[in-house]
């Protein structure tokens, strides 16, 4: 395939590819693969819809710029939700506690009523995973006693649109198949398409990790764990008589175990390695010069994504795991080093997106040649 020569804007042909067609296909795939899989935290009770909308839009912009970071967040939330399920199912009455209910707690979707003195002020307290486990252990209340939402109640509030998700999956699979067909048949792929494949990969990670997670719930649920005590039901810790009696567990043993640092760092390394590898797949992309849009610039950005993104995410994991202090409490030099790495990572990611678009200014002609078998298929 002769790929000599570079062109700028190419209008849409009757049967082929043009600049607008490539841009449209990539933008639609990125939006669908990120927006439909996005699960932001749930707003507190009494919050306005505008607050939730701002949070949703902010998360969408963050996901559009840094999908690999949000994919890592999705994995971390999945681990926390599964650990909550495993911990609370050991208590009587909680054996059917589902992953969907665990995700609801992890997503700040459960608030408890405060004591009766301030209840008239409608002040509620966020019920975090650790607090829920301690509460169940100390009071012996079951989910029905405190009015914990069931899967059906959660599903009623959730705004998951399976039709839109199906469209998103179909478009993403079609896009990936189209790009793979070009690679197999020796046709060139634009940098923006290479970048879109990386977005699709992160979208797939988020889709799998958040499969059981409720989506687009505007306001959190409110549970009343005092209700069971007032009604005289199970206000003392219960012991499962089927198990061999053991000494009472220590308080720290009841807390949800922190995210395992070493395995999560390995998962982070794998995630960023694949994300970086997708960028490096365009290693031989022909650039017209050694200017801003040059081969070494793209390769350097791809490698920097791993070099800077991996330690940044690893620090986030260790911070969540309480192995390291928050950046604000670090010594000045270490705090500046952490902030500098994160700033450089953000700058590199933004420049990578810019470079993928800038490449259309002088792109090789080969990216506009279309394989014959796709010429008769509709393409978004």
Task: Provide an overview of this structure.
Mean pLDDT is 76; it is low at 115-122, 231-258 and 320-325. The chain has a three-stranded mixed beta sheet, with no helix packed on it. The chain has helices spanning 19-35, 49-65, 67-88, 99-106, 116-119, 129-139, 151-157, 162-184, 191-209, 226-230, 251-254, 261-280, 295-320, 332-358, and strands at 6-7, 110-113, 124-126, 221-223, 363-364. It is elongated. It has one domain. The chain is built from 14 helices and five strands. Helix 1 packs across helix 8 (162-184) and helix 12 packs antiparallel against helix 13. With 380 residues, it is mainly alpha-helical.
Number of helices: 14
Low-confidence stretches: 115-122, 231-258, 320-325
When the domains are counted, the total is: 1
Mean pLDDT: 76
Number of strands: 5
Structural class: mainly alpha
Report strand order across the widest sheet.
Answer: 3-2-4
Q: Approximately how much beta-strand content do the residues carry?
A: under 5%
Largest sheet: 3 strands, mixed
Write the H/E string, N to C. EHHHHEHEHHHHEHHHHHE
First-last Cα distance: 26 Å
Sum up the overall morphology in one term: elongated
Fraction of residues in H or I helices: 55-70%
Specify Rg, calculated over alpha carbons.
25 Å
């Amino acid at each position: 395939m002769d790929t000599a020569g570079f062109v700028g804007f190419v209008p849409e042909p009757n049967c082929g590819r043009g600049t607008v067609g490539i841009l449209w296909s990539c933008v639609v795939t990125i939006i669908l693969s990120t927006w439909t899989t996005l699960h932001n935290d749930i707003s507190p009770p009494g919050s306005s819809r505008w607050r939730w909308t701002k949070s949703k839009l902010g998360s969408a912009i963050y996901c559009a710029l840094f999908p690999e970071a949000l994919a890592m967040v999705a994995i971390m939330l999945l681990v926390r939700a599964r650990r909550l399920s495993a911990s609370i199912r050991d208590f009587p009455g909680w054996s059917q506690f589902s992953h969907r209910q665990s995700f609801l707690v992890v997503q700040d979707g459960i608030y408890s009523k405060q004591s009766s003195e301030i209840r008239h002020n409608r002040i509620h307290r966020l019920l975090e995973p650790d607090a829920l486990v301690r509460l169940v252990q100390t009071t012996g209340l079951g989910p029905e006693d405190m009015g914990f939402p069931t899967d059906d109640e959660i599903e009623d509030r959730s705004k998951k649109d399976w039709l839109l998700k199906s469209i998103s999956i179909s478009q993403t699979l079609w896009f990936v198949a189209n790009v793979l067909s070009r690679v197999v048949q020796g046709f060139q792929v634009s940098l923006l398409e290479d970048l879109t494949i990386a977005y699709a990969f992160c979208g797939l990670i988020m889709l799998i990790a958040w499969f059981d997670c409720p989506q687009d719930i505007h306001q959190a649920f409110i549970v009343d764990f005092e209700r069971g005590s007032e009604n005289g039901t199970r206000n003392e810790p219960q012991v499962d008589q089927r198990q061999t009696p053991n000494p009472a567990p220590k308080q720290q043993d009841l807390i949800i175990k922190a995210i395992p640092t070493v395995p999560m760092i390995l998962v982070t390394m794998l995630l960023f390695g694949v994300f970086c590898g997708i960028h490096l797949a365009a290693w031989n992309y022909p650039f017209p010069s050694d200017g801003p849009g040059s081969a070494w610039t793209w390769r350097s950005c791809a490698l920097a994504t791993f070099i800077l993104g991996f330690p940044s995410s690893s620090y986030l994991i260790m911070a969540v795991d309480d192995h390291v202090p928050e950046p604000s409490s670090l010594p000045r030099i270490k705090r500046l080093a952490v902030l500098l790495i994160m700033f450089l990572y953000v700058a590199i990611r933004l420049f990578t997106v810019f470079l993928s678009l800038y490449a259309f200014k002088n792109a090789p002609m080969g990216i506009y040649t279309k394989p014959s078998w796709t010429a008769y298929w509709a393409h978004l």
